[in-house]
Amino acid sequence: SVDHAAFLESLLGAPLRALRAGRDAGAVTAVQLAAGGVFALPLPTSFITTFSLNARPKEDIAPRIRIEARKYIPIPLTDVALEWSELSPLGNAPGTVREIFLVAVQNDAQSELKLLQQTIQIKDALTEIELFSTLRAVTKPDDDSIVIIDLGAQTNKLYIARQGEIRKIHRVFG
Question: Can you tell me whether residue 6 is helix, strand or coil?
Fold first, then answer.
């Protein structure tokens, strides 16, 4: 059983309390979120990895992704929403090596986010995993490579991006 109130509190904290009390939540108001805000899912609600796949340059790799995903996602694939994209090749990689960025978001987290959106009366808001918000916030269009170190209370994270694409993620639990 999921404690909905605790989940909402963990996502928005003080801004949500202010909205519930009918006060201005400072920088985050329901109107601002509806007008163009993005909900950021906490990184622990997802599984993210990159991997290499041997395939011919023109080969359709979509059918192989779910099979490969089972190697990296520690829960049943029926419990997650799976997305992937092909990254640009690195260095002198042979033409048969394709780099894949794989993301799986837990269905429970998506359901809780929908509940949050209904609670604060926001429909069809954009949603992304927090690392993409962080990357967008700290990079400039001409950045070639960037490393982001996110020091958190429970988890420290290291993101490595090249030309706007996440290449590696490391988490250290403390």
Answer: helix
CA distance 64 to 94: 19
Which of 150, 151, 148 is closest to 159 using CA atoms? 148
Rounded to whole angstroms, the Cα distance separating 101 from 48 reads: 8
Q: What is the pTM of this model?
A: 0.72
d(C-alpha 67, C-alpha 49), whole Å: 15
pLDDT band for 42, please (50, 70, 90 cuts). confident
Q: What is the DSSP string of 47-103?
A: EEEEEEEE--TT---HHHHHHHHHHH-SS-GGGEEEEEEEEPPPTT--TTEEEEEEE
In whole angstroms, give the CA distance from residue 10 to residue 8. 5
